[in-house]
Known about the structure:
Elements: H1 5-37, H2 42-62, H3 67-88, H4 95-110, H5 117-147, E1 148-154, E2 177-183, H6 188-203, E3 210-216, H7 224-233, E4 240-242, H8 247-251, E5 259-263, E6 268-274, H9 283-292
Parallel strand pairs: 2-3, 3-4
Antiparallel strand pairs: 1-6, 2-5, 5-6
Amino acid sequence: MKVSPAIRLKKDSLKVGLSSLGLGLVVLVVVAAFLLHITNDMRWILWLGSAALLGSSAWLAVRGAGLLSICLLCLPLLAVLGVQMVGQLPGLWPHLVFWPLFAWIGWYGFRPPRRHAPVALFVALIASAVALWYCIAYIPGALSSDLNHFRNDPAPEFTLVHLDGKPYPMASLDGKVVILDFFATWCAPCIAELPELERVREDLGHRQDVELLIVANDSGEDTPESIRAFAEENPVELPFVYDPGGTAHAAFGFAGLPGLVVMDRSRRIRLIREGYNAAEIDFRENLVSFVEGL
Length: 294
């Protein structure tokens, strides 16, 4: 039975569409794996996603894919990672513009007969320059604005224990500026944040009225023993304490990790933040400056 040209065209279009969507899923997996296992630095995530979409769209364009296929290519990254990312960090919405823009550049420049390649190259250079400015001048401030929440509320009652099970002397925190960082050994951003917090502690070393504690709990099956083993295996000079049952973590209203809270001398919450991203390059300076001002 002879297949009509119209049916053949529909089958070919469906095949190209499914190939584009499948390739988009591969891009999503690659970018998500990089985010989870290598770095959560949103500057690298921008460039990796842009490069992957540009290369993928160029490959599809050479094979005659249309603009609809490029939309399907972008869909998984935008709908899954993009929406989740902007939901947590709304200041990074330009990611959702750069990714499809670079995908369009790849398609526009490589579709036959490639007479638009010079225009695509020019647009790519302009887009790259703007993206570079975005990474250097915009992202650090946007992250700081999204993650830092300044307050002036009374702190909840909470208790902590040492890793050996002995009660932590909560009275020793009276009259001090207290920085609590809620941490877990399985949390990659928590671990990435530790060197920055160590530098914060060094910068504030002359202040006897400032206390910084790394607070772990039993989330993810962490135990005082596993926390102590982590502290011994990693060269981090920070005091670890334990939050049995995660009661302090919940009392401060945290849902995830890491979570950081700064309390002033009268036990009022002055700063609270949930999350850490390596692209916030002024994290340490801003935190030290804030604490110095209390």
